[in-house]
Amino acid sequence: MRILIVEDEKDVADLARRALLEEAHAVDCAADGRQGEELAVSETYDLIILDLMLPHKNGLAVLKTLRREGMATPVLLLTARDDVADRVAGLDAGADDYLGKPFAVAELRVRVRVRALLRRQSEHKDGPLTVADLVLDPASHEVRLRESRVELTSREYAILEYLLRNKGRLVTKGMIAEHMWDYHFDSDYNLIEVYVRRLRQKIEAHGHTRVIHTLRNSGYVIREPEA
């Protein structure tokens, strides 16, 4: 997932960020409420981890603003472990879950995994994604070409899924970078080119016609083969 951490305690933010990066998530961090709100509004996240006690604008105010503007992104609150009133206020304002501070890294990982599972379940109601004879099944996390399974790494799979969810539309390297990694991804997109090249090779090794096309100086588009 792509996750935003809004936390002013640098040690806590760094700990959470490292733990989530190890789980292969993309992570952005904001050190105060205003910056966190700006990122949440201007970027697309799958989860926001939001501390309540923040400079410039507290977490509860940020949460209320996001919900008032119709943002449905799941929010995990970081609260003082013994502050029941803050937890209740946060949940009433639209938070999806809370985690008491100080927290164990293992517990944070479990909470985020649960959110990731719920996100996948909601996304996957639309069933398998297809192009020609290639089928990606989000429910089983499998990619098949006719009756053969195509073995992909987690990054290759994620890029293919992103392309298929945008089938027929241009997906720029910048869009892939922001979706797959984070807001501060290096502007050198060689890594993305490597992943897309490997993805093509694995698909075409099964004798499949090319479906991932490069638009020079623009990005990629996945589409049905021409008749």
Descriptive overview:
By secondary structure, the chain is of the alpha/beta class. The chain folds into two domains: 2-122, 3-Layer(aba) Sandwich (Rossmann fold), CATH 3.40.50; 127-222, Arc Repressor Mutant, subunit A. 42% of the residues lie in helices and 22% in strands.
Summarize the structure.
The protein has 227 residues and is α/β, with parallel strands linked by helices. It has helices at residues 10-22, 33-42, 59-68, 84-92, 105-123, 154-165, 173-180, 190-204; strands at 2-6, 26-30, 47-51, 75-80, 97-101, 129-131, 134-137, 142-145, 148-149, 171-172, 212-215, 219-222.
Strand % is 15-25%
Q: Which residues form runs of ≥5 with pLDDT under 50?
A: none
CATH architecture classification name of the largest domain: 3-Layer(aba) Sandwich
- Give helix and strand order, one letter per element, not per position: EHEHEHEHEHEEEEHEHHEE
Number of helices in the DSSP assignment: 8
